[in-house]
Specification:
This protein has 394 residues and is of the alpha/beta class. The chain has helices at 14-17, 75-91, 132-136, 138-149, 210-219, 234-241, 254-267, 281-287, 309-326, 344-358; strands at 4-8, 22-24, 28-31, 40-44, 50-56, 61-67, 102-107, 116-121, 124-129, 155-158, 175-178, 185-188, 191-194, 224-228, 246-251, 274-278, 294-297, 331-337, 362-368, 387-393. The protein has three domains: 4-67, Archaeosine Trna-guanine Transglycosylase, Chain: A, domain 4, CATH 2.30.130; 75-188, RNA methyltransferase domain (HRMD) like (Transcription Regulator spoIIAA), CATH 3.30.750; 206-393, Vaccinia Virus protein VP39 (Rossmann fold), CATH 3.40.50. The chain has ten helices and 20 strands. The strands form four sheets. A seven-stranded mixed sheet has the order 16-15-14-17-18-20-19, with helices on both faces. It has a six-stranded mixed sheet with strand order 2-6-5-4-1-3. A hairpin with a 5-residue loop joins strand 4 (40-44) and strand 5. Helix 2 crosses helix 4 (138-149) and helix 5 (210-219) runs parallel beside helix 6. The longest helix has 18 residues, at 309-326. It binds S-adenosyl-L-homocysteine (SAH). S-adenosyl-L-homocysteine (SAH) binds next to helix 6.
Length: 394
């Protein structure tokens, strides 16, 4: 098979030689023919030196690299990459574990498959394409998934309407590529939950908070817990298992609150310790008392682009300031940012300003990040996005 060739400007190959998986449009000298968005292209440097093969894109990232070797991108390629990722999840003891069947199988660049996300919930894999190339490859990827996971896999749901580049105008519709069971109960660290991949946010559950939820469980004993931005209630049912005295879950979405109630009952039926409220975070925080001694703040990404960074940092500062003001002495605050454009340093600075405003003594107990099934490719530091601090407030 012959591919269109992307030829780089002189001296623009350095990042590729360091295995960074993106080629920016500004680095390109010429392209042979007219590749369409999503096509496989080969990338060459000076003296016709082969550098990479990847998916062509329209926009500032022009190519997302699939391999730095001149290989064929066929069914075997997809099987090999998926098998490698699955093997890692077994090493991490997230797959083939009686206590856990929820994990991220493919984390884009972190699994050397830029533009592809696959989360596994029990018998269902939810696949999300962030690039046209991955969208075009969805059927062969599904075939490879079935081959690697075997009969444990019953459904593959493709959910990319919201993540594909809007301008590509693909008219992609979400739906099953394999199987078609609607409802599934999945398990994380022995706790059960329903996943609504059809209507839920992202792929249906925030798999990336697993380890942080475990840490919360560890501190929950006898505490009064506020789980702000609870979504499907992950932190809430861990807090319950950890022996919390009471757990209040808050989210502005009524749908999220009903899922939280369903999930808490699934694990702790009729347990009077839990209550959930559909309310805006700031409203709730302003009017609540000083009764909580364990607060979780896990807001949605306040900044999706660099140009709104300042506002986002203000948002984190304001939110955390109320928590510092209201948390009981001896309280523990779990505070997060999942905005990729907000750096660890900037987030910490926003939380620092909030703490200073409250005038309380605050110590950092833990610095948190994303779990091992959301690995960061060392050549692609942009892959690190989740930041969290656990703070002890006197
Ligand atoms: N902590 C969750 C994930 C949080 S996602 C988990 O572990 O699964 C962010 C959540 O914030 C979403 O569920 C969204 O509905 C909610 N949200 C967004 N804006 C909000 C607001 N102003 N007040 C309260 N909740 C809000």
């Amino acid at each position: 098979m012959t591919y269109h060739k992307v030829i780089l400007k002189p001296k623009k190959e350095d990042s590729l030689l360091r295995f960074h998986p993106w080629i920016f449009s500004g680095a390109i000298q010429s392209i042979t023919g007219e590749p369409e968005e999503g096509d496989l292209v080969e990338v060459y440097g000076a003296n016709n030196r082969f550098l990479a093969i990847g998916h062509y894109q329209i926009g500032s990232i022009a190519v997302r690299v699939l391999s730095f070797q001149p290989i064929t991108i066929d069914l075997d390629f997809w099987k090999e990459r998926i098998a490698t990722a699955y093997h890692l999840r077994k090493i991490l003891r997230l797959a083939e574990n009686d206590n856990n069947n929820t994990y991220r199988l493919i984390h884009g660049e972190g699994d050397n498959l830029p533009g592809l996300i696959i989360d596994v919930y029990a018998h269902t894999a939810v696949m999300q394409a962030h690039s046209v190339g991955m969208h075009h490859a969805r059927h062969i990827i599904a075939e490879a998934l079935v081959a690697v996971l075997g009969p444990q896999l019953k459904n593959i749901y493709y959910k990319s309407e919201a993540t594909l580049p809007y301008k590509a105008n693909l008219g992609s519709e979400d739906g099953y590529l394999y199987g078609g069971d609607i409802e599934d109960v999945a398990m994380e660290n022995g706790l059960k939950f329903y996943v609504d991949w059809l209507k839920g946010q992202k792929t249906g559950f925030f798999v990336d908070q697993r380890e942080n939820r475990s840490l919360l469980e560890y501190y929950a004993k006898d505490r009064s817990v506020l789980n702000m931005f609870c979504y499907t209630g992950g932190f809430s049912f861990y807090a319950m298992r950890g022996g919390a005295q009471l757990v209040h879950s808050v989210d502005s979405s009524a749908k999220a609150i009903s899922l939280t109630n369903k999930n808490v009952s699934l694990n702790f039926p009729e347990d009077p310790r839990h209550a959930a409220y559909a309310e805006d975070a700031f409203k709730y925080l302003e009017k609540m008392g000083h009764n909580y001694d364990l607060i979780i703040l896990d807001p949605p990404a306040f900044a999706k682009h660099k140009n709104v960074l300042r506002n986002a940092l203000q948002g984190y500062r304001k939110l955390n300031a109320i928590a510092f003001e209201k948390i009981k002495p001896g309280g523990i605050l779990f505070t997060f940012s999942c905005s990729q454009v907000v750096s660890k340093e900037n987030f910490r600075l926003a939380v620092f300003s909030a703490a200073a405003q409250s005038g309380r003594s605050v110590r950092i107990l833990h610095q948190l990040t994303q779990p091992a099934d959301h690995p960061v490719n060392i050549y692609h530091p942009e892959g690190e996005y989740l930041k969290g601090l656990v703070l002890y407030v006197e």
